[in-house]
Design a protein that fits this description.
RNA_pol_sigma70_r2; Nuclear Transport Factor 2, Chain: A; alpha+beta; transcription regulation; 6 strands; 6-stranded mixed beta sheet; transcription; Butyryl-CoA Dehydrogenase, subunit A, domain 3; 13% strand; RNA_pol_sigma_r2
Length: 327
Protein backbone atom coordinates (compact mmCIF):
# COMPACT_ATOMS: atom_id res chain seq x y z
CA UNK A 1 0.00 0.00 0.00
CA UNK A 2 2.98 2.34 0.36
CA UNK A 3 3.12 2.58 -3.46
CA UNK A 4 -0.29 4.31 -3.58
CA UNK A 5 0.75 7.94 -3.33
CA UNK A 6 -1.00 11.26 -3.96
CA UNK A 7 -0.27 11.10 -7.68
CA UNK A 8 -2.06 7.77 -7.99
CA UNK A 9 -4.93 9.00 -5.81
CA UNK A 10 -5.38 12.13 -7.92
CA UNK A 11 -5.40 10.13 -11.15
CA UNK A 12 -7.97 7.67 -9.83
CA UNK A 13 -10.15 10.40 -8.38
CA UNK A 14 -10.06 12.35 -11.66
CA UNK A 15 -11.06 9.24 -13.61
CA UNK A 16 -13.87 8.46 -11.15
CA UNK A 17 -15.52 11.86 -11.42
CA UNK A 18 -15.15 11.92 -15.18
CA UNK A 19 -16.84 8.52 -15.21
CA UNK A 20 -19.71 9.87 -13.04
CA UNK A 21 -20.19 12.79 -15.42
CA UNK A 22 -20.25 10.47 -18.43
CA UNK A 23 -22.89 8.21 -16.88
CA UNK A 24 -25.04 11.01 -15.47
CA UNK A 25 -27.84 10.57 -18.07
CA UNK A 26 -28.24 6.96 -16.93
CA UNK A 27 -28.34 7.64 -13.20
CA UNK A 28 -32.02 8.58 -12.82
CA UNK A 29 -33.40 5.56 -14.75
CA UNK A 30 -30.95 3.24 -12.98
CA UNK A 31 -32.07 4.56 -9.61
CA UNK A 32 -35.73 4.18 -10.61
CA UNK A 33 -35.08 0.58 -11.61
CA UNK A 34 -33.25 -0.23 -8.38
CA UNK A 35 -36.05 1.37 -6.37
CA UNK A 36 -38.66 -0.76 -8.10
CA UNK A 37 -36.58 -3.87 -7.47
CA UNK A 38 -35.82 -3.25 -3.81
CA UNK A 39 -38.81 -1.10 -2.82
CA UNK A 40 -36.54 0.51 -0.24
CA UNK A 41 -34.90 3.89 -0.87
CA UNK A 42 -31.72 3.07 1.05
CA UNK A 43 -31.30 -0.35 -0.55
CA UNK A 44 -31.90 1.24 -3.95
CA UNK A 45 -29.17 3.84 -3.45
CA UNK A 46 -26.77 1.21 -2.12
CA UNK A 47 -27.46 -0.93 -5.18
CA UNK A 48 -26.86 2.03 -7.50
CA UNK A 49 -23.53 2.82 -5.83
CA UNK A 50 -22.42 -0.82 -5.97
CA UNK A 51 -23.31 -1.04 -9.65
CA UNK A 52 -21.48 2.20 -10.50
CA UNK A 53 -18.37 1.04 -8.67
CA UNK A 54 -18.43 -2.34 -10.38
CA UNK A 55 -18.90 -0.65 -13.75
CA UNK A 56 -15.92 1.62 -13.10
CA UNK A 57 -13.73 -1.40 -12.43
CA UNK A 58 -15.10 -3.36 -15.37
CA UNK A 59 -14.61 -0.54 -17.87
CA UNK A 60 -11.15 0.13 -16.48
CA UNK A 61 -10.00 -3.42 -17.13
CA UNK A 62 -12.20 -4.47 -20.06
CA UNK A 63 -12.58 -3.84 -23.77
CA UNK A 64 -15.46 -1.55 -24.70
CA UNK A 65 -15.73 -3.05 -28.17
CA UNK A 66 -16.25 -6.41 -29.78
CA UNK A 67 -19.03 -8.98 -29.58
CA UNK A 68 -17.88 -10.29 -26.23
CA UNK A 69 -17.67 -6.94 -24.44
CA UNK A 70 -19.83 -6.87 -21.28
CA UNK A 71 -19.94 -3.06 -21.29
CA UNK A 72 -20.38 -2.25 -24.99
CA UNK A 73 -23.88 -0.98 -24.17
CA UNK A 74 -23.53 0.98 -20.88
CA UNK A 75 -27.29 1.17 -20.19
CA UNK A 76 -27.78 -2.54 -20.71
CA UNK A 77 -24.68 -3.30 -18.65
CA UNK A 78 -25.74 -1.20 -15.65
CA UNK A 79 -29.26 -2.64 -15.61
CA UNK A 80 -27.89 -6.16 -16.06
CA UNK A 81 -25.42 -5.67 -13.23
CA UNK A 82 -28.14 -4.31 -10.93
CA UNK A 83 -30.35 -7.27 -11.81
CA UNK A 84 -27.63 -9.83 -11.06
CA UNK A 85 -26.64 -8.22 -7.77
CA UNK A 86 -30.22 -7.94 -6.56
CA UNK A 87 -31.16 -11.50 -7.54
CA UNK A 88 -28.00 -12.84 -5.88
CA UNK A 89 -28.89 -10.91 -2.71
CA UNK A 90 -32.42 -12.35 -2.76
CA UNK A 91 -31.01 -15.86 -3.11
CA UNK A 92 -28.67 -15.33 -0.16
CA UNK A 93 -31.59 -14.04 1.89
CA UNK A 94 -33.67 -17.06 0.96
CA UNK A 95 -30.85 -19.39 2.01
CA UNK A 96 -30.49 -17.60 5.34
CA UNK A 97 -34.19 -17.92 6.00
CA UNK A 98 -33.99 -21.65 5.28
CA UNK A 99 -31.22 -22.21 7.85
CA UNK A 100 -32.27 -23.32 11.35
CA UNK A 101 -31.92 -20.55 13.89
CA UNK A 102 -30.71 -21.03 17.45
CA UNK A 103 -32.81 -18.31 19.07
CA UNK A 104 -36.58 -18.72 19.27
CA UNK A 105 -38.40 -17.43 16.21
CA UNK A 106 -39.64 -13.87 16.35
CA UNK A 107 -43.39 -13.37 16.51
CA UNK A 108 -45.11 -13.10 13.17
CA UNK A 109 -45.54 -9.53 11.96
CA UNK A 110 -49.02 -8.08 11.59
CA UNK A 111 -50.64 -8.80 8.23
CA UNK A 112 -50.28 -5.19 7.15
CA UNK A 113 -46.53 -5.23 7.83
CA UNK A 114 -46.14 -8.46 5.89
CA UNK A 115 -48.03 -6.97 2.96
CA UNK A 116 -45.94 -3.82 2.94
CA UNK A 117 -42.78 -5.87 3.10
CA UNK A 118 -43.71 -7.62 -0.11
CA UNK A 119 -43.21 -11.10 1.37
CA UNK A 120 -46.28 -12.46 -0.40
CA UNK A 121 -44.97 -11.28 -3.74
CA UNK A 122 -41.63 -13.04 -3.38
CA UNK A 123 -43.38 -16.21 -2.26
CA UNK A 124 -45.36 -16.26 -5.51
CA UNK A 125 -43.03 -14.71 -8.05
CA UNK A 126 -39.31 -15.36 -8.20
CA UNK A 127 -36.88 -12.43 -8.20
CA UNK A 128 -36.23 -13.22 -11.88
CA UNK A 129 -39.93 -12.87 -12.68
CA UNK A 130 -40.14 -9.58 -10.83
CA UNK A 131 -37.08 -8.21 -12.65
CA UNK A 132 -38.43 -9.41 -16.01
CA UNK A 133 -41.72 -7.56 -15.55
CA UNK A 134 -40.04 -4.31 -14.50
CA UNK A 135 -37.50 -4.44 -17.33
CA UNK A 136 -40.20 -5.12 -19.95
CA UNK A 137 -43.22 -3.17 -18.78
CA UNK A 138 -41.51 -0.17 -17.17
CA UNK A 139 -38.20 0.25 -19.01
CA UNK A 140 -39.17 -1.30 -22.36
CA UNK A 141 -36.23 -3.68 -22.70
CA UNK A 142 -36.54 -6.23 -25.49
CA UNK A 143 -37.04 -9.91 -24.75
CA UNK A 144 -33.51 -10.58 -25.96
CA UNK A 145 -32.04 -7.91 -23.66
CA UNK A 146 -33.99 -9.29 -20.71
CA UNK A 147 -32.83 -12.82 -21.51
CA UNK A 148 -29.25 -11.54 -21.44
CA UNK A 149 -29.85 -9.74 -18.13
CA UNK A 150 -31.41 -12.82 -16.52
CA UNK A 151 -28.98 -15.34 -18.07
CA UNK A 152 -31.84 -17.26 -19.65
CA UNK A 153 -33.59 -17.74 -22.99
CA UNK A 154 -36.33 -15.72 -24.64
CA UNK A 155 -38.71 -18.57 -23.84
CA UNK A 156 -37.65 -18.38 -20.20
CA UNK A 157 -38.32 -14.64 -20.21
CA UNK A 158 -41.83 -15.17 -21.58
CA UNK A 159 -42.56 -17.66 -18.80
CA UNK A 160 -41.13 -15.29 -16.19
CA UNK A 161 -43.24 -12.43 -17.53
CA UNK A 162 -46.38 -14.53 -17.31
CA UNK A 163 -45.66 -15.56 -13.71
CA UNK A 164 -44.55 -12.11 -12.67
CA UNK A 165 -47.52 -10.26 -14.16
CA UNK A 166 -49.97 -12.62 -12.52
CA UNK A 167 -48.33 -12.04 -9.14
CA UNK A 168 -47.88 -8.30 -9.54
CA UNK A 169 -51.51 -7.89 -10.54
CA UNK A 170 -52.46 -9.02 -7.05
CA UNK A 171 -49.89 -6.92 -5.19
CA UNK A 172 -50.01 -3.19 -4.56
CA UNK A 173 -46.65 -1.50 -5.12
CA UNK A 174 -46.87 0.17 -1.72
CA UNK A 175 -43.77 1.52 0.02
CA UNK A 176 -42.34 -0.63 2.76
CA UNK A 177 -41.02 0.61 6.09
CA UNK A 178 -37.29 0.89 6.58
CA UNK A 179 -35.85 -2.20 8.25
CA UNK A 180 -32.47 -0.67 9.03
CA UNK A 181 -31.23 0.17 12.52
CA UNK A 182 -31.53 3.92 12.87
CA UNK A 183 -30.44 6.08 15.76
CA UNK A 184 -32.86 6.83 18.56
CA UNK A 185 -34.95 10.01 18.25
CA UNK A 186 -33.16 11.29 21.37
CA UNK A 187 -29.73 11.00 19.74
CA UNK A 188 -31.03 12.60 16.54
CA UNK A 189 -32.31 15.54 18.58
CA UNK A 190 -28.95 15.88 20.34
CA UNK A 191 -27.17 15.87 16.99
CA UNK A 192 -29.49 18.50 15.54
CA UNK A 193 -29.12 20.72 18.64
CA UNK A 194 -25.33 20.39 18.52
CA UNK A 195 -25.27 21.30 14.84
CA UNK A 196 -27.51 24.31 15.39
CA UNK A 197 -25.12 25.58 18.07
CA UNK A 198 -22.37 25.83 15.42
CA UNK A 199 -20.02 24.70 18.19
CA UNK A 200 -17.40 22.37 16.71
CA UNK A 201 -16.44 20.84 20.05
CA UNK A 202 -20.06 20.15 20.97
CA UNK A 203 -20.85 18.69 17.55
CA UNK A 204 -17.72 16.53 17.58
CA UNK A 205 -18.60 15.23 21.05
CA UNK A 206 -21.77 13.65 19.64
CA UNK A 207 -19.64 11.31 17.47
CA UNK A 208 -17.79 8.19 18.53
CA UNK A 209 -14.00 8.27 18.21
CA UNK A 210 -14.17 6.06 15.13
CA UNK A 211 -17.39 7.39 13.64
CA UNK A 212 -17.77 6.52 9.96
CA UNK A 213 -18.79 9.58 7.93
CA UNK A 214 -19.95 8.53 4.48
CA UNK A 215 -20.94 10.49 1.38
CA UNK A 216 -22.10 7.91 -1.19
CA UNK A 217 -20.50 8.43 -4.55
CA UNK A 218 -17.77 10.83 -3.48
CA UNK A 219 -15.99 9.28 -0.49
CA UNK A 220 -15.98 9.75 3.24
CA UNK A 221 -13.93 9.85 6.40
CA UNK A 222 -13.52 8.20 9.75
CA UNK A 223 -13.17 9.52 13.26
CA UNK A 224 -13.81 12.77 15.08
CA UNK A 225 -10.75 14.50 13.68
CA UNK A 226 -11.52 14.19 9.98
CA UNK A 227 -12.59 17.81 9.54
CA UNK A 228 -16.28 17.11 8.94
CA UNK A 229 -17.56 19.20 11.85
CA UNK A 230 -15.32 22.16 11.06
CA UNK A 231 -16.40 22.12 7.41
CA UNK A 232 -20.10 21.72 8.14
CA UNK A 233 -20.89 24.36 10.75
CA UNK A 234 -20.04 27.28 8.47
CA UNK A 235 -22.86 26.64 6.01
CA UNK A 236 -26.11 28.53 5.84
CA UNK A 237 -27.92 25.30 6.53
CA UNK A 238 -30.70 24.49 8.91
CA UNK A 239 -31.64 21.05 10.09
CA UNK A 240 -34.74 19.36 11.29
CA UNK A 241 -35.59 15.82 12.24
CA UNK A 242 -38.28 13.94 10.33
CA UNK A 243 -39.74 10.45 10.37
CA UNK A 244 -39.38 8.69 7.04
CA UNK A 245 -40.98 5.24 6.79
CA UNK A 246 -40.66 4.74 10.52
CA UNK A 247 -37.04 5.91 10.82
CA UNK A 248 -35.96 9.24 12.27
CA UNK A 249 -33.70 10.99 9.74
CA UNK A 250 -32.21 14.47 9.46
CA UNK A 251 -33.24 16.89 6.73
CA UNK A 252 -30.67 19.46 5.60
CA UNK A 253 -32.34 22.52 4.10
CA UNK A 254 -30.89 25.53 2.34
CA UNK A 255 -31.78 29.17 3.20
CA UNK A 256 -34.84 28.90 0.93
CA UNK A 257 -36.08 25.89 2.91
CA UNK A 258 -35.32 23.43 0.09
CA UNK A 259 -34.16 19.95 0.93
CA UNK A 260 -30.72 19.11 -0.47
CA UNK A 261 -29.49 16.35 1.85
CA UNK A 262 -30.95 13.58 3.97
CA UNK A 263 -28.68 12.13 6.64
CA UNK A 264 -29.06 8.83 8.45
CA UNK A 265 -27.46 8.11 11.78
CA UNK A 266 -26.49 4.84 13.44
CA UNK A 267 -25.86 4.64 17.14
CA UNK A 268 -23.40 3.00 19.53
CA UNK A 269 -23.21 3.70 23.26
CA UNK A 270 -25.43 6.72 22.95
CA UNK A 271 -23.25 8.38 20.27
CA UNK A 272 -23.29 8.59 16.48
CA UNK A 273 -21.24 5.69 15.12
CA UNK A 274 -22.14 6.19 11.48
CA UNK A 275 -23.29 9.27 9.59
CA UNK A 276 -24.43 8.91 5.98
CA UNK A 277 -25.02 12.03 3.89
CA UNK A 278 -27.06 11.71 0.68
CA UNK A 279 -26.38 15.22 -0.61
CA UNK A 280 -24.85 13.85 -3.83
CA UNK A 281 -27.65 11.32 -4.33
CA UNK A 282 -30.27 13.68 -5.83
CA UNK A 283 -32.57 10.88 -6.97
CA UNK A 284 -32.83 9.61 -3.39
CA UNK A 285 -33.27 13.11 -1.97
CA UNK A 286 -35.99 13.90 -4.50
CA UNK A 287 -37.87 10.68 -3.73
CA UNK A 288 -37.76 11.32 0.01
CA UNK A 289 -38.72 14.97 -0.40
CA UNK A 290 -41.66 13.92 -2.55
CA UNK A 291 -42.96 11.53 0.11
CA UNK A 292 -42.49 14.09 2.88
CA UNK A 293 -43.95 16.96 0.87
CA UNK A 294 -40.73 19.03 0.99
CA UNK A 295 -39.35 21.00 -1.95
CA UNK A 296 -35.94 19.70 -3.06
CA UNK A 297 -32.93 21.11 -4.84
CA UNK A 298 -30.18 19.05 -6.46
CA UNK A 299 -26.47 19.47 -5.79
CA UNK A 300 -25.75 17.05 -8.61
CA UNK A 301 -23.83 13.81 -8.34
CA UNK A 302 -20.65 15.36 -6.99
CA UNK A 303 -19.11 18.60 -5.78
CA UNK A 304 -19.21 21.79 -7.81
CA UNK A 305 -16.36 22.10 -10.36
CA UNK A 306 -14.27 24.62 -8.41
CA UNK A 307 -14.48 22.54 -5.23
CA UNK A 308 -13.81 19.34 -7.15
CA UNK A 309 -10.65 20.75 -8.72
CA UNK A 310 -9.23 21.69 -5.32
CA UNK A 311 -10.28 18.39 -3.79
CA UNK A 312 -8.53 16.40 -6.52
CA UNK A 313 -5.42 18.58 -6.33
CA UNK A 314 -5.04 18.03 -2.59
CA UNK A 315 -6.59 14.54 -2.33
CA UNK A 316 -8.53 15.75 0.70
CA UNK A 317 -11.73 14.30 2.10
CA UNK A 318 -14.96 15.03 0.19
CA UNK A 319 -15.78 18.21 2.11
CA UNK A 320 -12.24 19.62 1.87
CA UNK A 321 -11.77 23.21 2.93
CA UNK A 322 -15.01 24.26 1.29
CA UNK A 323 -17.28 21.98 3.30
CA UNK A 324 -19.75 19.29 2.53
CA UNK A 325 -22.34 20.24 -0.03
CA UNK A 326 -20.68 23.54 -0.87
CA UNK A 327 -22.25 25.44 -3.73
Amino acid sequence: MDDIDDTTARALRTAWFRYLDTLEPLRAPLHAYCLRLTRDIWDAEDLVQDVLLKGFGMIGRGDLHGPGSPVANPRAYLFRCATHQWIDAQRRLARQRALPADPPPAPAPPPETARLGGEALFAVASPQARAAVILKDVFDFTLEEIADALRTTVGGVKSALRRGREALAEQAMTPQPSGRPGASPELVDRFVDAFRSRDVARLTAVLTETCSIEVPGVGGGRGRRGGWAEASVGHETHLRAAVYRGETVILFLDPEDRLYDVARLEEADGLVSRLIHHCFCPDTVQAIGGELGVETVSLGYHQQPETLVRMIATTTLPWGSEGLGAE
